């Protein structure tokens, strides 16, 4: 069952990407129209309300540990803190391998963690996590689309366009 986000957001899906059924715990999913050997690169959006003063780095590390629960050779190849004190963010890239059918496949996942203030309670933070998962072979060709997507994500003020 798809999840809802802690705050409404709006975004523009990259050209050619297709909305997809959202897996459990995911608020929104989209897939690339040209799979690589049967695997479609995908963008997912999820979020929640982090407890206490958890940092983006702590959340990112927890995500890496979850991947280690089902994947092999999990390596953080890049991690950078972004944003400001009021709205911290973090981007990380992870490589891993896992079985798909009978074959071991290599994947790359880029994650972006965005903290937004809650309009209803300025002392509460909302977390939005954006992720791109692609085969290692296809990653470079879809990374630009993901970066374009990330640049369009913003809180939905309900004004519409």
Describe this structure in words.
It is built from two helices and nine strands; from the N terminus they run ββββαββββαβ. It is an alpha+beta fold and 161 residues long. The chain has one domain (9-155): Mog1/PsbP, alpha/beta/alpha sandwich (Protein Transport Mog1p, Chain A, 3-Layer(aba) Sandwich).
Give the helix/strand layout.
Layout: E1 9-10, E2 18-20, E3 28-31, E4 42-48, H1 56-68, E5 72-83, E6 88-100, E7 103-117, E8 125-135, H2 139-152, E9 154-155
Antiparallel strand pairs: 1-9, 2-3, 3-4, 4-8, 5-6, 6-7, 7-8
Question: What would you say about this model in short?
Answer:
The protein has a single domain (9-155), classed as Protein Transport Mog1p, Chain A, CATH 3.40.1000. Helix content is 17%, strand content 43%. The chain has two helices and nine strands.
Count helical runs.
2
Give the low-pLDDT segments.
Answer: none
Arithmetic mean of pLDDT: 90
Q: Any guess at the CATH architecture? A: 3-Layer(aba) Sandwich
Output the strand order for the largest sheet: 2-3-4-8-7-6-5
Total of domains: 1
Q: What's the CATH superfamily, by name?
A: Mog1/PsbP, alpha/beta/alpha sandwich
Give the biggest sheet: 7 strands, antiparallel
Helix and strand composition category: alpha+beta
Number of strands: 9
What name does the CATH topology carry? Protein Transport Mog1p, Chain A
Binned, the helix content reads 10-25%
Give the H and E element order: EEEEHEEEEHE
The proportion of residues in beta strands is 35-45%
